[in-house]
Fold:
Amino acid sequence: MDPSDAILAPVIKLEGAELALSKGFKAMEDKQYDQAESDLTKALTLLPTAPLNKTTWQVGPSVVDKDAFKFFAYQARSFCYLKTGHSKLAIDDLTASIKLRPEYAGSYENRAKAYYLRGEKALGDVDMATMRSLLKRTAKAK
Structure:
């Protein structure tokens, strides 16, 4: 990187929910899943307190809308819940993420895994069938 590029690069100051999400992602990278759960919960808790005129949210290098921010937070926290053996909480978060983005096949696959961990094979099978259907639909659209 040319040193002059650093002058032009925007400095992003994360606060509130965005800062908590960033900390949660960092804790996940470090395999500190309990800490990540806490940080991601804080991100979701702080989200409603953001200024009403805020329309974009920083998620890593991307800028997204509020629903996408929630989707990423629920997805990340569900991963942590699965890693720490909290499959019921993972199912709850994956269900919330499905409500936000019902076309995302990965949520159904991950929720199926959580159902299987709980011994709920029938529910897992339904989610796997939904995932396969979504993937076929996506493949046909290409």
Remarks:
- The CA atoms of residues 68 and 141 lie 22 Å apart.
- Confidence is low (pLDDT under 50) at residues 1-11.
